[in-house]
Queue: 2 jobs
Job 1
Amino acid sequence: MRFGLIVAAFMLVGNVSVSAQTYGRHLDGRPVTALAPPGTKVVVLYFIASDCPISNRTLPEMLRVRDEFRTRGVAFHFVYPNTTETPQAVRQHLAAYSIGDDAILDPTGALVALTHARVTPQAAILIPQGSRWAVAYAGRIDDRYIRLGLERPQATQHFAEQAVTELLAGRSVQPAVGAPTGCAIINPRAPLMHTASSGSTGGAQP
Amino acid sequence: MTARWLLLTVLCTTALSTAALAQQPVPTTLTPHERDIITWRATIAPIVYKNCTACHHNGGSAPFDLTTYAQARRWASQMLDVTQSRYMPPWLPAPGHGEFAGNRRLPDTDIAVIKSWVQAGTPEGTGRAPAAPVYNSAWQLGPPDLILEMPAALAVPASGTDLYINVILPSNLTHQRWVRAMEIKPGDAQVVHHANVILDRTESLRRQHPNDWQYGIPGMDIMVDSGDDFDPDSHFLFWKPDSTALVEPPTMPWRLDPGDDLILNLHLKPTGKPETISARIALYFTDKPATERPMLLQLEDDAALDIPVGDPNFIVEDTLTLPVAVEVLGVYPHAHYLGKRLEGWAELPTGERRDLILIPDWDINRQSVYRLAKPLPLPAGTVLHMRYSYDNTAANAHNPHTPPIRVKAGNRSEDEMAHLWLQVLPDAAKPGTPDPRLALERAWMENRLRKSPGDSIALYNMAALDTAEGNNAQAESIYRRLLAQRPTDVRTMTSLGAAMAAAGDWQSAQQQFRAAIAQDPTYTDAVFDLAALDAQHVDTQPEALTEAERLLTGIIASHPDDAQSQRLLALVYADEGELPKTVEHLQAWQRLALADPEPHRALAQVYAQMGRQTEALREQQTVVTLAPNSASDWSDLGVLQAQLGDRAAAKQDFQRAIQLDPTLEAAKANLSKL
């Protein structure tokens, strides 16, 4: 009996970890089993961090896009991918920046692995593809930040907004331009940052 | 009398940086063995503690803490990026072009070490970890002598472009002080990017915005009226995120007078959520006045700033020949968002070159004042040079205009500027020779007029220089030229009156002041100057006394803290024989000038005239307390003591007077009469 219980426990853990239908956790610890209800045309994941200044400074743009499209069949989630985040700190952050309650903690990196996000802030825009979600756009939210230490007075290109607009119109999405600039995601499943990192000393494009 | 000085006060704060920050690979000089032993404890922590944690500590101005291994590991990727690009630590000057105090440029080897550490997986290492520096939020120099606070908190929106706001902090002093140190606490240092403090000696900015000055006045650069006396701006009062207390050399405190405003020019960066700023300024005083008087000198050519669309390398230059020998103490280059390469140097009379500064990739976001590691002596005849380039293409990420537009000079952040400020200390003048700063001011203004003959500020200051040097006819000529351009400018009208009065044509001066008052009855300087002139000429114009009384009563009704008006009105009442009113206004003057013996001296005389000897004695005793080395005051005290019957005290007073000044005949005569 003892041997059988151990096997049963092992099997249970295995089921959870390999589940393709789990997308991080809600703040109360419940797993996120669906990113959006059936019929949703587009899902926007904003990868953010409570302690990242560029992420915070970009939040007004993220909220602007959310408010523009949230009633038009687009679902939005603010994903906190860093394993260092705590539910309490995230709740404070949500309140301080008037984000609302669309937060997902991603300590196991499920969404990081799905989108290959490596920096906060970054947008990953998903569209349904059969029973799965496919990444239609992954990259900068706008072009204000070019690399660490180089930013425009204001954004001239609003990539996330453009991508959502194109998807809703049935057009193909323009590929991401420039490397996302911000803070490296601290998550075992995040791509390594040591050679071509956030601000990128070599690969940034304006 | 009035001879106002107008000085452009330059500020700035700002912005973001231009492309191509040091993308060159940093040479790695480490051996494989050295790379193997690079750990946080052994190698990285000392570098971080020396170069980073002044800002990057809990509660510091940087957005995250780097005082622990865990924190450094969390931000290791960013540390690698920003040191490779030399974005951090922030330091714009190129090496080898001027030696500056507080150089924050990271050595190449440190950059290589950080790279190896990050690539090795940020090992912590073993052994004893160095102790992290301890930071606290207390004032660095202990309890301040005076703390100035913003009259109202400033709201910063969650998003948008950077903001440039000027906040006025009245000093509310009752008597003159000398400031030996200043510390600014900007409130939330993650919102305040840079700050400059400008002295407004005439409340000029407050008067320009009478209804809303408490809430901040937008603008990257401002101009203030420097007031009646020639005492040009002398110190860079600059704050950046790692600034602590700004301590001046013991010989160079800066003067702060009653009525002076401190203007805090703030560069604010929205953080993503609404913020409020409540900045405070701590001042530390000294009893020792300045014995050395530096001056801020400017090279500029804003008039040449007319940058075409698409020009990647628009050049602006200026030169200024030093009329006197100076030592350069600091430099402050300033351009806005299109600035690209900023260079300043000096060409000695021998032809030798001395670099002042070179910033190859200008970034207004990281602008700073640079204090020289040691003073740079420059002989008279040295030619100062400024050469700036600007990039008005779309490839300049800092360009505030999309698409680019033609840009000219202006105070808004989207305009441009071409300024190179120097803090210079002229060689000490020989006794009896003019203040060498006058020669520097003249050279500066002549240089401005060479570039822009109609420059009204330069013309005004040239006229003020002429007045100060006794060239009243020349001053009158310039003021008339200015009035031809701006016939209703009340300040120039008043200054012309002052020049007329200085030349002896006091009746024309009266008419000029009356014309200025008719133009603007609230222009206090004209009102005061006319009253002062009236009071001087009651012998030939007895009716002028009535006018003076009326004018001064009007000033005091709206400015009860105007000490000079209180004094002058007391003298007018004395002339009219209204001694109780004289006492009333002398007492008001005395309350506004607590350390000044003069109102007590006047009160002693008036009380004596009124037969109130005891009160006269009390005032005269205060005089000698405040001015213990004045022989004539001791003699006067002796007279009052004698009148009240205290011959012994009177004798001591006369002897004290004679001891201080053996040639004082009055004291000797008084002593002999005892």
Note: The radius of gyration of chain A is 18 Å.
Job 2
Amino acid sequence: MNHDTYLRIALLMRYVLAGAGLFTALWALHAALRDQANARQIRRTEAEFGAVAVLFVSPTEKKSTLAKLRGRSEEKPPRLGRSGSVGSGRAADVRIKGMGLDRRHFDYEIDKKTMRVFPVHPGGVRKYGKPGDGDNGVLEFGPGEKICAGKAEMYFLMVRRSREPESPMNRRAYRNKRKQPCGKK
Amino acid sequence: MDRAIQLRRRMSRTNEKPLAIAVMGFQAACMLLLAFKDPSVDWFSVRMAVLLPLGTLTGLWLTSKCCADRCMFLLTAFLCSLSVILLRAVFSTTGKAAQQAQYLGLSIPVMFFGVLLPRFFTGREEKFIGFAMLFGVCFMLSPFAFHTSSAARSWIRVLGHQMQPSELMKPATVFILASCFTQGRRASDWGGGVFFGALNCLILFAQKDLGAMLLYFLLTAAMFAAGTGRWKLALGAVGAAAGLAVIFVVFIAGKIDGFGYLITRIEIWKNPWSGAHESSRQIVQGLMSIVSGGLFGAGLGLSSARKVAVVASDYIFAAVSEEFGIVFALCVLAVYMVLLIRGMGAAGSARSRFHALVAFGACFELTVQMLLIVCGNLHIVPLTGVTLPFVSEGGSSLMGSMLLMGMMMGVSAVNARDEYDDLMQASGGREVDPE
């Protein structure tokens, strides 16, 4: 091609290519933020519709409270998502107050019918309440087995899985999200 | 698995068609333009104008089959094709671009191998950890026995091609560290990972590859902090290492043979304009190259970026700025940021700590590497000699980065399958109709 012609086309194409780059970056950013919001919502409702287990906490002291889901006042065994953390702090996914647990005592993940516990607090976690300072390694629990952490004794129970989130608000949001293909209004 | 893909896309994935069209259009337009740069038609560029979009389309189909993140793949394809386009545009011959295209062709299967790895290693990582560590250390040590004439002593020659073991070991290191740091809180659980990371750093120090050493050190510290939750210990280690580095540079480096270049490099960085025609020519030319592109660039194939020393690897970001302009260069940085967001999203959504740590490590490594070289090009930090992931010239760097990206995509694929399993189990084994 003639050099002058190439020069003209290349100078014109600068704007087209910058536009293509800008479109790619902005679309990708928009998609990433949108997917992040969707993933957050799925994670938030995971303990309701993707719940695979409950953690039943047996009160060993009179003044102790049962495990509470974060932000809820009613006392009931918390339903567990696939993974999360247990502790007495607000940041813990399952909050257990007044039973000698650290803010974030242990993390867990549930795969099929096994719960793997990763102790975070140096006090560790014990299996079946065996004596000692607690095990700081990874422990595996099956359904019905007892997890001892601090003064709390917890039973890991398997329950049914629900098809949709249980609370009306989350269920409505989840249905809307499923009906609406992402990227289209 | 098609059903899983549909469900996943409806629930949490954006419609990628516009992005795919934009990326493939960009690849075809750039290569077609370059085909007519010279008086005679450049058939290599014509072939690339067809092969790059075709490769992207094939990869997209494979990504869908693997149930992995299509957006991540498209952005990776965009960056990789940018490498071939730049090498063709900057240099008058097609040699470097053709070689990079060959490496790109080889690295796509490597990336899909990486996609399969997180799924394969689920629950089996402990079986391979000992062997992987031993192999990794031997591989990192190989340049001492088979090194080429490079000054950094970190290259080996295999089948006529030069390669850098430290680049290829990055994905393996991420896997090994993820496996070690998810074992538990006891020092015996994570000690192996810390020892492996420290040994790698020592080997790289002995090879005088300080840029790679910095990357490995930061990777080990970040994965240790994320895996064990001991942030204070990790920060303390980073602080202590920074102090030792300062002491080494100020008091020791000048006295040891082979490390004198460190002091020179820092002097150049502090005042590059004093030796603009001699020692700091590369920095000055790089800065001038970035500025001379202006907002929209000099035009594809019309820049003088070839005058910058080592433009194909160390100063490829300067070439991006001069050829395409600062607006486009900022878009490239935004693409890296999106990859970071998506990688961290995959790590956050992972249901196993091992997968979360693999995605985090891969994402962290690519991001830090990108920041080090871009900041080096912009004269914010001294130049470390690491490559710009996916864009810089080089086979081992490209393969290592593609494998890391593949691992991130593999974790996203495992997440998608977990969600699908939940829905299947929730519906008693029946297919769930999203409508």
Note: The radius of gyration of chain B is 22 Å.
